[in-house]
């Protein structure tokens, strides 16, 4: 039975890795197909896929070698990048109409998730406490930067990380995270299609700005007219009346699902959903402890929610950070010498609970 353990674990690892290759490969191939048929600029999508794949691979390697230090370093790097790079922090020169608040919130969310993953990976109570203080400090930093969304999502990830210590079955929890993402993306589509009550619509426009809602409506209009292949990658800004009228617009609808649906059709948005589904599947099969897995899942869910109503995934640092956190949470740390001497088996408490 002991000899069968590694083989079984290896089989569980092949599934998520093979699925990742297929899904990311399709995400890279489809914009090339639509660009060949309709024209456009697929380089942005290709860069995003490459960033996720590179971050994931780096996370797998770093997590295997340094299961505590690697996510801690990632958390520090993420919040350091947010503070030091002007283009990621909200400021008066870029707040109207859209700004880069989504990128700041996303980096804060990923940094808090990485710090909490490092805390759960540590067995020393003092180190675990210090890493949770680091996560709380990142949330405070978001408040100082004026990122309300980052403060809210970072706090949610920290609270979820503290709560998952009592969770024994990761499958239902990961499924719930998928429902949360759908619950955030749904209202954005409803607002774009004027399918919400007038009072709620006015509230959404007040919080998200009428300009952003106008971009969503333009994107949904493109979906209705070009549902098959979309209008072509990178062409939304040229065809959107709302974007053309605004000199501050960056040519994107500021919603990842709506952008892919408009530019790459239903296949594009389906591939985006498959990417998130693959991440949840990889977390479900991960050999890491359940609290680590669910903490990373909460942070990636926060990222997906932010990307549903913002432009976070247009920043390469965010795409790399998301892939890095997923790789850290699905890595297999190398056993220490004592574990090797016992025949290479993991302690019972470290086995993943589905």
From TrEMBL:
Segments traversing the membrane: 18-38, 68-89, 101-121, 133-160, 172-192, 265-285, 292-315
Residue span, O-antigen ligase-related domain: 137-272
Task: Identify its membrane topology class.
Answer: Multi-pass membrane protein
Q: State the UniProt keywords alphabetically.
A: Ligase, Membrane, Transmembrane, Transmembrane helix
Location comes to: Membrane
Name of the protein described by the UniProt record: O-antigen ligase family protein
Recorded GO MF terms: ligase activity
InterPro entries found in the cross-reference section: O-antigen_ligase-rel_domated, WaaL-like
What organism does the record attribute this protein to?
Streptomyces marokkonensis
The ranges of region (Disordered) come to: 335-354
